[in-house]
Amino acid sequence: MKLGVVRFPGSCDELDALRACRLVGDAELLWHRDRDLRGVDAVVIPGGFSYGDYLRAGAIARFAPVMGAVGEFARSGGLVLGICNGFQVLCEAGLLPGALLPNLSLRFVCRQVDLVVERADTPFTRACDPGEVLSIPVKHTTGRYYAPERILDELEANGQVLLRYAEGQNPNGSLRDIAGVANERKNVFGLMPHPEHAVDPLTGSTDGARIFESIAAHVEALRRGPLAAAGGSASAVVGRGAA
Amino acid sequence: MRARVLIRPKEGILDPQGQAVERALPALGFDGVANVHVGRMVELDVDDVSRVGEMCERLLANPLIEEYEILVVER
Question: What ipTM, to 2 d.p.?
């Protein structure tokens, strides 16, 4: 399995993302001018300030040549994970619903937050348990998730809210405490917290690794066949194979 | 032709920047100020001003969260 991490001018978390990806498989950097994704099984759009975040966070990056390929990849069902600025880019590109607005506090927020796993049956959360709490840091100025009420209701109804800030820990004023959302098909996922900064005991929590383990488990399951891919936990897959 | 695009947060979207300015003005003795919104301005020379609307929709503004107004500027 190979993961690709996109590097834009102004990205700054791509090396941590690369390192996190390498805990679960092979990984390489993709350059913003690349027009093909070199056969990767999943793409990570990392945090940072792509193209200086000029105009609006993510507004310019969405026109990068690589984003054409990422869009095609996503439309064909490929897994795309957007972290922080990557989340902003995916929203601007229309691959995810909603938008990220400046934090209500108008301040840069950098702290560890608890996230509640709302759905554990998606490619990005299948290594988690439903309701599990993950401790992962946030660090951003523009992280207030917004979508019109009608869209928020749709997201909830479709189970597209995969992660929520734990009660009382919403760091930015995101509507309905949303920390991470997926598209309807659940193959594109964006979140403001940084799982790639929480994969080593040296920095405290290793809960972020669950997101990368989930992606790896999903890609592996797809290899074994669509039945395994649809299954949630590894034990269910084994059970089905034996039967 | 010179076009000036004014971009502001859509009505109904919480605008903490506008609120911060609104709270600061009375502190300086400017009373009677309400509904302050902070946005941005983009000025551009264009051959065809009729295309600026499309530029706003696709890049200059995010129509989900912002509204825009296009003015033609005399020089």
Answer: 0.88
